Structures are given as structure tokens and as C-alpha cells.
Amino acid sequence: MENIFRTIGYVLILALDGLLFYFLHSHFTFIVLVLMLVAPVVSIASVFVLRRYIKVQVSNVDKSYHFGKQNEEAYINIRVSNPTPFVCLDAKLTVNVGNTFFKTEGKRVIDIPIYAFKGYDLELPITPTLPGIVTVGVSSIKIKDIMGFIFLKKKVETVNELVVMPVDISDGLNELPSFEQGMLESEESSKRGNDFSDVQEIREYIPGDKLMSIHWKLSAKRDILMVKDRVSMSDRQLVILPELCGQNLMLLEGIITTTYSIIANLIKDKTTVRLMYWSSKRYEYEDIRLDYIEDVNEAFAKMFYEETYMAYDEAATNMASVNPELKAYAHVSSDGGRVLVNIRENG
């Protein structure tokens, strides 16, 4: 509506200048008339050129930054590249922000200018309130010519992902000591500092080995990096099984946060953990061994790409038939009103 009134007003002014030139035959009014006839053509043509050549890209501000933290601010860079000499003082970006794991999404429109031969760089702050895969994308950009006569829309398909880790609430979990009593390997682990692996040999460092496995004292003596090669002492380890039930988003967040906090706390105590979760897409369990906190982040990032299901005990229901060799596990689930953590016997 605004551009319609603007166009009508411009036509009236153009007509008035034409009348003045007709009666006065002034060079000034003639120059103004020519400029008023040419300017809208150039302005409108510039929008068509801009729509064709501008590009939009979404990325992390820090290129190496991949993991974020729940309730902590992160920045996403939206870059609009403009190789043309034309400008736009009022471009509208449609930005979509969502969480693929929790199935939430939102949309906002941001006004930006587009500079000649440059474009525009926008650092968009976001504060994820839920863990999971947070996607930030631009679906379209709407460009207005500099004189405000027309808007042109260009569809854009650019998305960036940020893996958001849950908040560690292990300090507030009162049940953590009970896991030590419920460990299947409690007798064996008590002799070795609650670690389900032991050093088999010392060998030279190979690219890809974890830095935490480096034997620093021996490396200093030999003037070459040496690592401790560990092997599993037992097939039976502490298994954590979270239920990825999306029936209630608040409870799902509680299950994810509780699982992450328990595992993080056990990793700090140098306890090897097996994270298992049910994949409803592949109809099988994912089984990941976790020795270091970096393993936990990678495992949760992988888990966040799974589909949630509706039953609060679907993963536990399938455990006995799919993994009968497993004797017991820590089950993180819900009863529909609160998050529950129990040591369950399998079978």
C-alpha cells in the first residue's frame, strides 16, 4: 500500500513539473522533468539486477565453533554479498530458527541495508533454550528499489546448524552415588579406580590418538610422543539408556539433560560408559562407548539426529529381545509427570 501512495504522489509531482515546463519553457524544469522520468527507470532496473546477483550465506561467526551450550548466547553470521554498484536501503530477510530434535521452529523478519560492491554482514545473536540441533536459515530476501516503488522477492535456501549441548546439572542430582552401587562391574572397577579399561602397552603416537592418552612423562624422556594403549577389561560396562520420547517436550528435555549430566559426571570420575539409545528410524540400538567428554559431545550430536517416539518405555521394551546378553542398565525415562532414573535388570 505504501508503494502505491508513493507512486501516485510521484506521478502528480511529475505532472506538475510537466505543466510548469509547458507554460514556462524553463531549462530548469526541463532538466527536472528528464531526471524524474529517468530516475524511476534506473531505480526499478536496479532491483532486478540486485535480485539476480545478490547471494545470502549463513555460517557460524567462529568457523571452528560447532558446539553450543543450552541457555548460552551464540552468534550466527548472515552475509549478503552484492557485486553490483546498486544499493538497497530497505531489504527484508526472512530468518527461520528451529530445533530439529524437539520439532520447534520460529520465524522473524530483519530489515537490513545492502551496500554497493559489498552487501551486508549481520551477526545474529541466538540463545538456545533447548538442547539439540538448532538450525538457522534464510528462506527469502525482499528488496525494495531506492525510490520505493516496487518490492521484489528472491527465494534463498541457506541453512547452518549448531549442536547445542544440555546444561550439566550433575551437582543437583542426588541419585548419582547409587550408580556406583548398581554398577555391574563394581568389584572389578573398585580395584582400578572405576575405570573399565587397563593399559595394555605403551606405543608411539599415531595421528588420531586422543591427547588424553599421551604418556607425558615417558614422552619427555624419549623426546617422542608415547601413548597408553588401553583395552577393555570386560564386555560388561555401565550402560545408560535414555528414552527419546517426544510426547512431552519438557520431560524430553529433562531426560536428555539428566542423561548428559550423569554421563559427564561418570566421565570426570574416569568411568567408561556405554550410551545406548533406540533408533526408531533404523529399528535398532545405537551403542557408543564413551571415555572422554569429547566423546560425549559427539555421541549426543549424533543422537540429536534421531526421531523421537511417543512411548515412554519403547527403548526398554526392546532391550531384552535385541540385547539379551546385557544383564542390567541405567534407564532414564519418565512416568508422564517426572524424569525417572532406575537400574533395570534386563529380561
Q: How many strand segments?
A: 15
Strand content: 35-45%
Q: Strand pairing plus helix content: what structural class?
A: alpha+beta
Q: Total helix count?
A: 8
* Shape call: elongated
Domain count = 2
- Written as H for each helix and E for each strand, in order along the chain, the element string is HHEEEEEEEEHHEHEEHEEHHEE
CATH level 1 class label of the largest domain: Mainly Beta
Mean pLDDT: 84
Q: Tell me what the CATH architecture of the largest domain is.
A: Sandwich
Largest sheet composition: 5 strands, mixed
Cα-to-Cα separation, first versus last residue? 69 Å
CATH topology descriptor of the largest domain: Immunoglobulin-like
- Which runs of at least 5 residues are low in confidence (pLDDT < 50)? 183-199, 231-236
Nearest-angstrom radius of gyration?
31 Å
How much helix is in the residues?
25-40%
Q: Going across the major beta sheet, what is the strand order?
A: 2-8-7-4-5
